[in-house]
Amino acid sequence: MECIITVSECPDDSGGSEDWDNDLQQKIDHEIKMREGTARLLVASKHPAQVLEAAKNLLSSNTRIIAYMTELQRRKTAEVLGKQSSVEGNQLPCSAQLSVSDIRIPLMWRDADHFRNKGDYRRYAVFCLLKVGTEIYDTSMISDVDRSMTDITFEDVIHFDDVPHDFEMKLEVYCHKLHEEFSVASTPKKLRKKINDISGSVGRSVGKRLSGLNDADVIGNMVLGPKFELVAKGSLHLSDVDNSVRTYDLQLETNAEGQVHELPLFGHYCCRLAALPHCLVQPTVTGFLNLQEDDDLSKWKRYWCSLKNLQLSCWSSPDDVEVIQPLLSIPVTKSTQISDADPTTSQKSHSFLIKTVNINGIFCHTLAADTKEELNKWWDGFQQHLLDQALWKHACDEVMDLKSATRRKLPAFVRKSSLYEDTPLIEPENNGDSLVSDLGNDQLTQMLHTLMGEASQIRGGTSSQS
Q1: Is 240 helix (H, G, I), strand (E, B) or coil?
Q2: By the 8 A CB rule, do 199 and 210 touch?
Q3: 394-407 confidence digits (pLDDT tens)
Q4: Using one digit for the tens of pLDDT, what is the confidence trace for 40-69?
Q5: What are the start-end ranges of the E strands in 215-372?
């Protein structure tokens, strides 16, 4: 009888549900503390770049809090109504690790702006949020986006763990238009020095104006900082997983008047979305099996076997797994059929047949477990492995390379530009020294990013920024 993916009983996960709810509540409490700390740093920040970074982190924390509270409420409602999450016949498919990298957003400036170097000198600060369920990570912020740039390139590598096969990854693009006071790098040195002297001597009111704030941005003594607007969003699914960089649609957001943001987005973005299902890197089931010899059906050879990465790998003993290559590998793919062994050719009890058809022909292997319990374990394992392949589809065709995660670096607050700028069409203007060239050693910047680094570790440390 052929192996059919059947329905199995799900264990009572009431204890796991309670632990998960407690974990969500702890995350909410942590993000609230992070938000309070970031707000205090925002008030104490003197440099515009610091204010922007703090405002970005504040928005990210608020977004996570909303996501956590929404999920907690959903779970409480489902618990009251007695609803259970439905999966394929109550059998859980494996999850996967996702990697997002090479994010690039093309810009579409007017001809007069980009090529003729005319028009106003608008500048923007841009970053992205990436969401999968309650897991939310932000990219680094690209400041001083101006008409000389053909695209916005993010060097971040962001990882998501334990992602289900039916995931939806949302990408949101946030933008803040830098006020004229923020663009002092383009002013003459004397005027820039005068502005700096004023902002450092007259106190909070001028500092607030230089930070692009207004009275509506202050609640009590908590300064909320510059406002980032959601200007575009996109979504990615399993069908978008690929081992190379691809182009996807970007939906532009409109304001109350029905107009899109003035940042000249092209309506597309590029990225590499790689997936690594756990069934490709973690054994579904392991144990001893007896393999019937091809030349003599009465002889059997005992192997230590591991079902992983679309094959059943066999060694002489479990000690050899990490030392040598498997002595035998039996394909277990979407075209594999698993059935009871033919009793006329296999006299051994607890035996089964693995039959695989591929371009090289038809391959049959007869194996036997030691006990009925072991047979059931292997039978369930093969069901699980075939289910994982069926649901993860092309993501199981190869082991995709997930780019290595690197630790978050302190931002240098320098403008990142496109590779196209290696061959400029015009001679670039010399705008002098940057107002924020000394921020890398600033104490407030160190405090801010130490705080956010601790937050990343508490959330799991799966977001990495180059």
Answers
A1: helix
A2: yes
A3: 999 999 999 876 55
A4: 888 888 888 888 998 999 999 999 999 999
A5: 218-219, 222-223, 229-236, 246-249, 251-252, 268-277, 285-292, 300-308, 311-315, 328-331, 336-340, 351-358, 361-368
